[in-house]
Amino acid sequence: MLKRFHVLNLLLVCWLPVLAQVAPAAQSVKGKVISGYQAWFNCYGDGSPVARWRHWSAGQYNSNNGSPAPGAISFEAYPDVKEYPASVMFQTNLGNTNIGDPAKLFTSWQPQTIDLHFSWMQQHGIDGAALQRFLGETRDGVFKRNRDSVAVRMRRAAEQYQRIFYIMYDMSADDTTYFKNDWLHIENNLGVVNSPYYAHQDGKPVICLWGFGFTGRTNVPAHSIAIINWLKGKGYYVIGGVPTNWRTSSGDSHPGYSAVYNSFDMLSPWSVGRFSNNAGADNFITNHVTPDLAYCNTNGIDYQPVIFPGFAWSNWNGGAVNQIPRNKGEFFWRQVYNLKNLGFNTAYIAMFDEYDEATNIMKMADSYFDVPHNQYFLTASADGSYLSPDFYLRLTGQATKVFKGTTPLTTNVNIPFSVAPLWFRTSVQNGYDAMPTWTDSPDPTSIPKSVLSPLCGVVTGETSYTGNASIRAGYG
No. of H helices and E strands in the chain? Predict the structure, then answer.
């Protein structure tokens, strides 16, 4: 018996490393880069319970009325749709693209779409996603069934592509009873929390509650604490998506919410739209993140900073086009640079697929050629240099490596704007495309193309933005 016991011990010792390898890669949210995932785009005819156009435009139930059309859309950045299967693409009432293709858009509801998105996360090394669940809309059974389906399909995609995920609620403090019932429904009926790729921290499954304490939402701190404590009593690790000014209970935060914020296991203060350029990002670090982090460290609260690539919603809510410019990735990278210098190894990216407010890192149209001819949309190259559709996925992947310490931190973006085989194209449309840099003429637009053309060509041996050769326009 003793001999058998030693043999069993030996087998366990030998097999433990193997078991560790077949288990999911570390499930924690600390040390990870997580992207918010909406998965909320619907098209009429996609088979979803929503049965209308949704988030691309405001459609009518069980009708194609409200199909996206010029002046009747609710999104700013146009997606790059070349890789989607035909089964998930639906025709709009927008005009053909400037290259002549029909203006079709994808539905998020079909599993092929979610699979494609998670394959991009895997390809670019993004650790996982926080699935948004807007509690208010689930009071409508149609939308509840839709979000349930997306959650289950997301679980399958996360497992297939080995990405971690967790549920992130957008809610208010007056949702106490309804929230509890909805979460019990997710636990008991959907079973997504049982996935081996559902995120855990400190051995506890993760859930995020976004919205407590924000001005404009119900001011009932006792209800907020009750929900947090109910979840913690069930063994959950609870993240709070909280106002920017949570620590001082001012500005976008209700006063009197300090006890609520202190109840969370991790805080993730909202930063989208709170600054608009690199100088603003620096000020935000100084005035908010640094003192916030000190407070959290003193009080034993974890911290998940938010990074966003840019912002605009002129097609939906008005305002300027390209309102917070991406600046060819430098705006995003400045946030990465500042956070890494503070010692962070984790971040929340807002967002993966948020085309509505143009905070998406997901693939977007690269130029004037790929947007409808009769409606403005933001493109990846809007700041005047050609950026490929996948640039922000690649940049987020690079940021993930920096946060994990597997690649050095650089002051500026250090990945190419594009990669072969398609690495440059432009129609020279200002606000959409890569634009020539003129140096020798005060008014190059006045020079006839017959004169300009012989002076443009491919040159080598000079510094360029994307490699060792580039297109240059000059004057003799």
Answer: 12, 14
Q: What pLDDT sits at residue 423?
A: 66
Do 46 and 33 touch, CB atoms closer than 8 A?
Answer: no
Same structural domain, 273 and 383: yes
DSSP tag of 138: G
Among residues 384, 404, 424, the one where a domain terminates is 404
Q: Which amino acid is at 399?
A: A
pLDDT value of position 469 = 45
Is residue 15 one of the residues assigned to a domain? no
Neighbours of 71 (CB within 10 A): 7
Give the Cα separation of 400 and 253 in Å (integer): 30
Longest dimension (CA), the chain: 95
Q: What are phi and psi of 90, to 5 degrees?
A: -135, 140
Residue 173 is predicted with a pLDDT of 81
Share of the chain above pLDDT 90, in %: 82
pLDDT tens, position by position, 374-398? 999 999 999 999 999 999 999 999 9
Residue where one domain finishes, among candidates 404, 431, 453: 404
Report which of 395, 311, 392 is spatially closest to residue 356, judged by C-alpha positions: 311
Q: Which range of residues forms the domain containing residue 464?
A: 444-473
Instruction: Report which secondary-structure segment, H or E, holds 51.
Output: none
Among 143, 331, 306, 147, smallest CA distance to 240 is for: 306
Low-confidence ranges of the chain (pLDDT < 70): 1-26, 422-423, 437-476
Rounded to whole angstroms, the Cα distance separating 335 from 284 reads 9
